[in-house]
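G., the chain you wanted modeled:
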Amino acid sequence: MGQERFGSFGLATSPARKAIPADEAIALLKRGEAKAGSLLGYGNGRSYGDSCQNDAGMVVDMRPLDRIRSFNAETGVLEADAGTLLCDIIAHAAPYGFFPAVVPGTQFVTLGGAIANDVHGKNHHRRGTFGCHVEALTLLRSDGRTYRCSLTDNVRLFAATIGGMGLTGLILSASIKLMRVPSLDITEKTTRFRDLGEFFDLAEAADQANEYAVAWIDQLAGGHGRGRGLLFTGNHAEHGSHAADRAGSRLSVSVQPPFNVLNRPFLTAFNAAYRWKKGKSAVPRQAGYQGFFFPLDGVRDWNRLYGPRGLFQHQSVVPEEKARRIVPALLDAARRAGQGSFLTVLKRFGAVRSPALLSFPRPGYTLTLDFPNRGERTLRLLAELDRIAVEAGGAVNPYKDARMGPETFAASFPQWQRLEALRDPAFISSFWARTAKRLEIGEGRAEAAE
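Predicted structure as tokens:
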């Protein structure tokens, strides 16, 4: 199978060397013949780092398993194979007045991938993570057994598999509870804010009044404009469309340019134009769901604009009581390093708890930045962002990561050993080998030295 189909979305890591079709991997697992560390489920490659890669073994192409098995139009419970794309779930449920309770920034993720990463959206303050709406899942492990996992069956495996980054086995299918909505359309309002202080003054009230809330930051603005941006709030429109668009991207970056197109002059001009266009009216307007939830899906392969070296995405969350000090510090670190972020997003996480053993969202504010890969210069900046977030009692998102150190991971997820204890021995990722396994080796050496 062609390795070009099995890379990460950030393009900064090497694509998988080997891939195996889902049916072959399932047969291998059922026979109990999968070797240690040989497998990792691969969805649609929308993870930015190496949590979807397995340099030591093979990735399992789950995309052919894309059948929607059942849907209850009364309760909104939908069962589908793990390779089913979110866009197809939306299209199937929309005519009945249902929509996923949580959607990430792209509709081109698989059901299994959304569960494995416990993704979040613009309404965490109300609905929590994707895992909060998983009713049950089926998991195939290397002992040859298929496990039904839920809040009442195989409870520990259920918690470890949600947010477990594919390490507990192969998710075959899942049942999720969708949210009833009056329409797919969104009544959207845009509010300008002069600086981060004004944003923080607006944020909690915006969450209380709206289903969805997210802010865009003009990361390059300095002086009096530092921290300025736009706060987008939205709710499903009472009267609107129930027609989903499966067509996907109408524009595409067909050829990867030999250099990073998203350079500082471009970003400065883009930010000014974006702020003017999106912020020129504070009057609520009705918009299609695609533009509100998945704006970047409108340009297929937009990640190629970063050039052959790709990009790094950094997402951190910091406690609410420290956010007014730490979020500006993160943005200042990027400015001092001379690095421009094409997409800078700030939003507030609520207190809805995920059933996941390891889940990135937690109460506080989360900042996402995209940087072109400029080698060591960029890696130094990312390490500094890690330090600022972790020292503040925050965390760094593993499924957006391609380079964090073991210590950053352990500080972000102190319960990582509980996932390691439930990890299927046949499954591992390059991310887990780079972080958790090195921590384990380090602890083993420390014990031997005592």
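DSSP finds 14 helices and 20 strands in the chain.

Shout if anything looks off.
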